Amino acid sequence: MAGRDNAFDLLVIGAGPGGYVAAIRGAQLGFKTACVDSGAALGGTCLNVGCIPSKALLHSSELYHQAKSNLGAHGIKVGGVSLDIAAMLAHKDKVVSDLTQGIEYLFKKNKVTWLRGKGAITAPGEVLVTPAKGKATAYTADNILIATGSGVARLPGVEIDENRIVSSTGALSLAKVPKHLVVVGGGYIGLELGSVWCRLGAKVTVVEFLDTILATMDAEAAKQMQRLLTGQGMEFRLGTKVLAAKTTNRGVSLTVAPAHGGQNGGNDHQEIKCDTVLVAIGRVPYTHGLGLKRLGVEMDAGGRVKTDRRFQTNVAGIYAIGDVIAGPMLAHKAEEEGIAAVEAMAGQAVHVNYDAIPGVVFTAPEAAAVGKTEEELQAAGIDYATGKFPFMANSRGRASGQTDGFVKILADAKTDRVLGVHIVGPDAGTLIAELALAMEFGASAEDLARTCHAHPTLNEAVKEAALAVAGRAIHA
C-alpha cells in the first residue's frame, strides 16, 4: 500500500455515478483511494444537471398536471390550481443538494479523498490535478480509473447559449414556461424534458432526424409512446433535420428540411418560430484534456476509450468505465462497471451482463426495456415467441386510472428463455427490475408465469404477459 500523502492505490478521475461508486468500492477493498473532480459538488452530470434534477421536475410537473386535469375522475375537486415555477425549481435544487452532500458524507465515511480540480494523466501511474485557483499538484497511483462521463453533443448551425437555445442543463432551469418549445432530438432526454414543459403549459414540438422516436427501443413500444405523447399535446416532426438557428430578443427561428435532401438553398426549407430550443441529440464521451492521445491509449472511431473485459486499457494500470467506453450511456451501467473495474484491480473475477441492463424513459406513462428488441431478434434470425398483456386489463391499473400501455415479453421459441422485455405503462421503470433479474438468472417465460404475483398489483401484467407467451393468459 502507498504511504505518502500524494500517493494512492486507486485514483478515480470523475465523481459521477460510475466514479464515486468505484471510489467507495475501492476503499471498501482496502485501497487508499482518491477521486478527482472539478465540480462544485460531487455526483457528476447525473446528480447535478441530469438524472436527478430531471426526475424531480418530471414528478413535480406530473403532480401539477394531475391536480389541474386528472383528479376529478377520482372524486377530488380542486380549484384555483396555479404554478409556482420558482418553488418547483427550488425543490429540484434541494433534492440535488441533499444527494450530493450525501456523497460527500460517504466519501468521509469510507476515507475517500476528494481532490478538487481537473485531472490529467501525465504518465502511467501519474496524475496532475489542477484546481480552479492555485497551483497544480502531482499525484501517483498504482491504478487510475477514467470515469469522466460525457458531454452534450452539438448540432452544426445551432449555437447553444443556455438562454434561448439550451442544452439539457439549461432546460432544467428555465425561469418561466415557454409558449413554444422546440426539442431537437426524440431520444430519452428530449422526450423527458419536453414532457415536463408540456405538462406545465408549453406547446412542444419534437424535431427528429430519424423516422421514429426512441430509435434504440422496440419499434412497437416506440410507436405506442409517440401515440400517447401526441395525445398529451406534443407534436412530432419526424424525418426532419435542423439546418440553422437564428436567435432574436423575442425568440428563435429554426430552419428545417426533410432529413433526406433539403440542402442549403432548397425549396423544401421551412421556418419554425419558437421561444426556446432544446438541443437533445445525444451525448459524446468526455476525454478532453486527459492526455490519453499522448499516452497512446487506444480509442475507437467514436472517441471512446477501448478496454478489455476487465476494463483495463492497452496501457497497464489505466482503466476506464461508463460513458467514455462502449455501451449505453446510463448511470447504472457506469455503476456496475465501476464496481467491476475496481474488483478486477483487486484480483477478483468480474462480469457485467450487458443483456440485462435496463433502460427507462421517465415520461408519463414510462417506457422501459431490457434485453433484445423484436427487430434485433429478427435481424439475428432467432426464432422467438411473444407474449403481450395490456394494462387496460390489469386490475390495479384500472383502479388507479393508469391503463395506457402494455408488457411484452420475447422468449426463445425453443428454450423459452426470456430474451427481451418491453413495457410501456405506469411505473414501467420499477416493473422492469423483475425482468432484469429474471434475465440475469436465465429465467424462462414459464418461470415468470409460475411465480405468484400479489393481487392487485401492476406486476400481475408481467405474469400475464409471461402466460401469453404460451398462449394461456387468463385475463385477456
Task: Give a verbal description of the structure.
This protein is an alpha/beta fold and 476 residues long. It contains 14 helices and 22 strands. Strands 1, 2, 3, 4, 5, 6 and 17 form a 7-stranded mixed sheet that branches. A hairpin with a 4-residue loop joins strand 12 (240-247) and strand 13. It is globular, with a radius of gyration of 24 Å. The protein starts with 6 loop residues before the first strand and ends in a 7-residue tail after the last helix. The relative contact order is 0.11.
List the helices and strands and how they pair.
Elements: E1 7-13, H1 17-28, E2 33-37, H2 44-49, H3 51-70, H4 85-109, E3 113-116, E4 118-123, E5 126-130, E6 137-146, E7 150-152, E8 165-166, H5 168-171, E9 180-184, H6 188-199, E10 203-207, H7 219-231, E11 235-237, E12 240-247, E13 252-258, E14 270-274, E15 276-279, E16 283-285, H8 292-295, E17 318-320, H9 331-345, E18 359-361, E19 366-371, H10 374-379, E20 384-390, H11 395-400, E21 406-412, E22 418-425, H12 428-440, H13 445-449, H14 460-469
Parallel strand pairs: 1-2, 1-6, 2-3, 6-17, 8-15, 9-10, 9-15, 10-11
Antiparallel strand pairs: 4-5, 5-6, 7-16, 12-13, 13-14, 18-19, 19-22, 20-21, 21-22
